[in-house]
Design a protein that fits this description.
single chain, alpha/beta, 8-stranded mixed beta sheet, 7 helices, 10 strands, 23% strand, globular, CobQ/CobB/MinD/ParA nucleotide binding domain-containing protein
C-alpha cells in the first residue's frame, strides 16, 4: 500500500509520517518513507537517521538531467522499481525502516520544484511493493502535487487537519481532489488539538463535509 500524507503547511504532516512509520514498523511492516517535500529539511532526524539520503534526483542527472528527461516517455528506464533495487546511498535503512528523498531546493534562483514533482510521480508509479512492505509519502504542503498527478498511483490519502479553519478548507480541497481521481480511501486525522471541545467541533465540521476522521492527536508542548 502507498499512503500519501497531505495537508496545509505547518499542520504537522512530517510528525504524522514519523508516528505512522514507527507504528507500522512496530507491527512488523517494512516501511519506506518517501520524502517528497522539497522544502522540509528535517524529516530524516525525526525518523532517527543521522543524515539525509542522497536525493533520487541525482540518479537521473540532477535537476538539469531531469529537465532533459521530462520530455521523454520515461524518467526511469526500469519498468518497475522494487525497494531493494534502490541503490545506496539513496536508500537509508534502520531496523525495517527505510527513507528516500526526491530532492530539495538548496540554492537561490535554482528554479521551481516542478521537476521534483515529475520525479515523485514517476517514482511512485513504478515503485513496486512486496507483501509486508508499506510506503508512506510526506507530501509538500497544499494541493499543487495533485495538479502534477503525483497521487495517481496512491492507494490512500491521509489529510492532516489542525484547528484553524483554513486547515479545514485545505483538507476539504484535498479530499475532493483525491476523490476526483478515484482514490477511495481518503481520511482525516486531527493534529495539535488543544481540547476535547475543539476536537468535537473539528470532527463535526469535517463530518458535515463528508470527511471521515480516523484519529486525533492533542497538542503537546514537548513536540516542536
Amino acid at each position: 500500500m502507498k499512503i500519501s500524507v497531505c495537508g496545509k503547511g505547518g499542520s504537522g504532516k512530517s510528525t504524522i509520517v514519523s508516528l505512522l512509520a514507527s507504528e507500522a514498523q512496530a507491527r512488523g511492516h517494512h516501511v519506506l518513507v518517501v520524502d517528497s517535500d522539497e522544502s522540509n529539511l528535517g524529516l530524516f532526524r525525526m525518523l532517527g537517521f543521522d543524515r539525509p539520503p542522497t536525493p533520487l534526483m541525482e540518479l537521473v542527472g540532477g535537476k538539469k538531467g531531469l529537465k532533459q528527461k521530462m520530455s521523454q516517455p520515461n524518467v526511469f528506464t526500469e519498468a518497475t522499481i522494487p525497494i531493494d533495487h534502490i541503490p545506496s546511498p539513496h536508500l537509508l535503512k534502520r531496523d525495517g525502516l527505510m527513507l528516500v528523498s526526491i530532492g530539495k531546493i538548496l540554492q537561490s534562483l535554482e528554479g521551481c520544484a516542478c521537476p521534483m514533482g515529475v520525479l515523485s510521480r514517476e517514482f511512485l508509479k513504478k515503485l513496486s511493493l512486496k507483501e509486508g512492505e508499506l510506503a508512506i509519502v510526506d507530501m509538500e504542503a497544499g494541493v499543487e502535487h495533485f495538479g502534477r498527478g503525483v497521487e495517481t498511483s496512491i492507494d490512500s490519502v491521509l489529510i492532516v487537519v489542525e484547528p484553524p479553519l483554513e486547515s479545514v478548507n485545505v483538507g476539504q480541497k484535498i479530499h475532493d481532489l483525491a476523490s476526483g481521481i478515484g482514490i477511495k480511501n481518503v481520511w482525516a486525522i486531527l493534529n495539535k488539538v488543544p481540547s476535547d471541545e475543539i476536537a468535537t467541533r473539528l470532527k463535526t465540521e469535517l463530518q458535515e463535509r463528508h470527511i471521515e476522521v480516523v484519529g486525533c492527536i492533542y497538542f503537546d508542548a514537548d513536540i516542536f
